[in-house]
Structure formats: C-alpha cells, structure tokens
Design brief:
about 325 residues; 5 strands; three-stranded parallel sheet; 13 helices; about 55% helix; Tyrosyl-Transfer RNA Synthetase; binds tryptophan; Rossmann fold; two-stranded parallel sheet; mainly alpha
C-alpha cells in the first residue's frame, strides 16, 4: 500500500457549531479523508482553558463525534478520538514546554484576545494552549494541518518548536504545513455581514447553528440584513448582506453564484431570503436526523472512540518514546 500523507485536525467540543464551521472545516474533512491518513481529535483538553460546565463538556464530546459521523466522516478511513483519551498529548506538551519561550506565548494573538475577554481567568493553560496544540500535531508526524486563518499562528509556532527540537537533538518531528482551504466560501454573520459568522457572536440571530430547527433557520434568514436596492446581485463591496446570502445559497445548493443570481432575477428580497433559509434547512435536516440516531446508540459511539484512541495512542507513543530517549529520560 502506498504511504499516504498524514493530516491532523481537531475541534473543541464547546459551543454550538455554525454552518460556517460545517463549510469551513467538517465538509472539507470528508473530502480529505480519501487522500490522507487522517486524525481528527475532539480537543477537550484545549476546551478547559476557559471554564466549562462539566456535564455539558461531557455531553458535547459525544454529540461532536456524532456530528462528525453524521457529516460523513468515516471511522474506517480516519482515526477519530478524544484528546484526553491519549495521555501522550499531555506528556509531550510537558516536554515541549521546556522548548518554548514565555515571550513567544505572550505574543500569540489568540492568547492576547482571550486574556482580554477572560480577564478574571488568565490561567497557565490558556497560555500553554499553543504548546498543547503543537504536541497534538507533532505526535502524529503530521504533514498537513487544515486550518482557518485564526489558527495560522498556532501552526507556525508548532513548526518553530519542532525545528528547535530537531536542531538541538536530531530530526525527530516532521515539520507540518498548514493547509489553507482553497474554497473561498467564507460565511459571514447574518446581522453584521462585515464579520465572520461565529459560534460566539453576541447576537445568536446572526448565526445559524447546526442544531437549529427548520423554523428557527427560516426565521433567522428572514431577519438577515440585506442592503438598499432590490436586486439580488453578488457585490461584496456594496451589497455585503445579499452577497453573503448568495454565497450561502450557492454552497448549500451546489449552484454557482451566477446560477444563484439567475434563480432570483426579478424576485424580491423576501422570496430570496426564504429560499436561502429553505436550502439550508433542507441540507441540515438529514445531518441532524442522523446525528440524533447516532446519539441514541451510545455503545456504538464509545466503540468508535475506543478504537480511535487505541490507534491514535499507537502512533503517538512511538513519537513520545523517541522524544524521551533523545532528551535522556531513563527507560526501563
Ligand atoms: N485550536 C483549534 C481550534 O480551536 C483546535 C485544535 C486543537 C487543533 N488542536 C489542534 C486544530 C491541532 C488543528 C490541529 O480551532
């Protein structure tokens, strides 16, 4: 069998995911799983760097897995597991901490943002977040990490730490590359189309969550801001709201933007917004149904996580053993 390149990604099992996450991350993974040896983790260790409600964190771990599966990520092709089930993550993180400078971590954009937002809880985990992420990636001798722009700096630092370690000892870690998704479909907030749709937006009416039911979805699209004028035309400069809705429609129907515009030639914004809402609701319904069905079968889900953790640990422990040997940890 030919050696496939290794791809690594993870999502935190925290807030509700939005259709932006579906398009930006999860859907891409379903395509990538055929070309790469994929590891997809549920990053619960990263999640606790901001306060979580324990019962919710536990529940969301399973519902995140069910969502991955419902979206078509195939446990036969990919290794799906929970980060805390593979102790090597914490262990390598500890080693890498001694190869990472405090100043580097203080300068990370996300650390500065989160410190500002959680001023009452600027904990060591928050500062160490990029090192844990580097450990995630480096344990699997990862070739590529598909990420959004907000995670770019974290992949850079993982490369720096890997290079530093390799230079001090001998080559130990593969130097990973960030893989930026080429699809230009960036989905913006429905109420403020100058901003990216976010799972933590102030007003939840600007985001479509993967858990929203049909009525909620249609109601949110009806309230989406459009622009002055009445033509359904793609013009992100002057018609940010309409253009965002056209993008969503195009992504959810598989039509091009030009075909989407043609569908609404001579029609008003009201019809247009309803059609976008219906297209999204139609696409989400089967995913939600499948997710619910899977969640009812806890023993199946736990089986997926058990074999995922076993496979992940097998690879991760090989890297960790090399690291321990190089740094001089006495081995029995
Ligand atoms: N920090 C990432 C996020 O919030 C999640 C993550 C954790 C991750 N470990 C990773 C992503 C390793 C890519 C690779 O989106």
């Amino acid at each position: 069998m030919e050696e496939r390149k290794v791809l690594y990604s993870a999502i935190q099992p925290t807030n509700n995911l939005t259709i932006g996450n579906l398009i930006g991350a999860i859907k891409n993974w379903t395509n990538l799983q055929n070309d790469y040896d994929c590891f997809f983790a549920i990053a619960n260790m990263h999640a606790i760097t901001v306060r979580q409600v324990p019962a919710d964190l536990r529940q969301k771990t399973l519902s995140m897995l069910a969502l991955y599966l419902a979206c078509g990520i195939d446990p036969e092709k990919c290794t799906m597991y929970v980060q805390s089930h593979v102790p090597a993550h914490a262990e390598l993180c500890w080693v890498l901490n001694s190869f990472t400078y405090v100043g580097e971590m203080e300068r990370m954009t996300q650390f500065k943002d989160k410190s500002a937002r959680h001023a009452e809880n600027i904990n060591m985990g928050l500062m160490d977040y990029p090192v844990l992420m580097a450990a995630d990636i480096l344990l699997y001798q990862t070739d590529v990490v598909p990420v959004g722009l907000d995670q770019r700096q974290h992949v850079e630092i993982a490369r720096d730490i890997a290079q530093r370690f390799n230079n001090i000892y001998t080559p130990t870690f593969k130097i990973p590359e960030a893989l930026y998704m080429k699809v230009g479909a960036k989905i913006n907030d429905l109420l403020d189309p100058s901003k990216k749709m976010s799972k933590s937006a102030e007003n939840p009416n600007g985001s479509i969550f993967l858990s929203d039911d049909r009525d909620t979805i249609i109601r949110k699209f009806k309230r989406a801001v459009t622009d002055s004028g009445s033509e359904v035309k793609f013009d992100p400069e002057n018609k940010a709201g309409v253009s965002n809705l056209l993008t969503i429609y195009s992504v959810f129907t598989g039509k091009t933007i030009a075909e989407a515009e043609a569908d609404f030639a001579g029609k008003g914004y009201g019809d247009f917004k309803l059609a976008v809402g219906e297209a999204v609701a139609d696409k989400l319904a089967p995913i939600q149904k499948e997710q619910e069905k899977l969640l009812a079968d806890k023993s199946y889900l736990e089986g997926v996580l058990r074999s995922g953790a076993e496979r992940a640990a097998h690879t991760a422990n090989k890297t960790l053993a090399k690291v321990y040997k190089k740094i001089g940890f006495y081995q029995l």
